[in-house]
Design goal:
With 223 residues, the chain is α/β, with parallel strands linked by helices. The chain contains eight helices and twelve strands.
């Protein structure tokens, strides 16, 4: 999962980026609202963690601009403000959730997982697909009841594909899910991860749609 973190507090931002990255998320960190607004116009993110009190452009305006463009990316508002009025304004501006500082990192992770389920219209916290079970909270994968060892990026790629079973995802979209800004990425890195997943779940598990990207079929139970 790729997260855009927008927080101008150096200490908090650094701690959140490190904590979320340790859990396996790809985290891009920005420190002002204007730069975040520009990034959201051109990049794909799964969740935005957005502070309200930002320099150059307030978080509320970033959120309002996002929604005015018709983008449904889930957004969690972070703020030190505790009044009901501030919470209502954030939610009415299009926020999906709200956390008041200080907060526990585990709670933020849980809320991110909940938003991701909601955005894919999935009620079950587990992802299941023809013998595969992926647990986002425990960060584990089993296949036919056997634990499968996957790397951090293989886990993120598998989760993205399972959440979009039956849909073709572009190579660019998948690459943006796995890699943040400034990372040194080989040109065939995505293909290597695809190859590794095919070795673990079958050569026909992931289909290559030439010139477009990759997909997995819908679960047999859904057909």
């Amino acid at each position: 999962m790729r997260i855009l973190l927008v927080e101008d507090d150096e200490l908090l931002g650094d701690g959140l980026r490190a904590g979320l990255a340790q859990y396996g998320y790809t985290v891009d960190w920005l420190k002002d609202g204007f730069t975040a607004d520009q990034a959201l116009r051109t990049e794909n993110f799964d969740v935005v963690v957005l502070d309200i009190g930002l320099p150059k452009l307030l978080g509320i305006q970033v959120l309002q601009n996002l929604r005015s463009r018709g983008q449904a990316t889930p957004v969690i508002i972070l703020t030190a403000k505790e009044s009901i009025e501030d919470r209502v304004k954030g939610l009415d501006s299009g926020a999906d959730d709200y956390l008041t500082k200080p907060f526990d990192l585990d709670e933020l992770k849980a809320r991110i997982r909940a938003l991701q389920r909601r955005s894919t219209t999935r009620a079950d916290p587990l992802l299941t697909h023809d013998g595969i079970t992926l647990d986002p909270a425990a960060h584990t994968v089993t296949f036919q009841e056997n634990i499968i060892n996957v790397s951090r990026r293989e886990f993120a790629l598998l989760q993205k594909l399972l959440e979009n079973a039956g849909r073709v995802l572009s190579r660019e979209h998948l690459a943006q899910t796995l890699y943040g800004w400034g990372e040194d990425v080989d040109s065939n890195a995505l293909e290597v991860h695809i190859h590794n997943l095919r070795k673990k779940f079958g050569s026909d598990f992931i289909h290559t749609i030439r010139g477009i990207g990759y997909m997995i079929d819908k679960s047999k139970d859904e057909k």
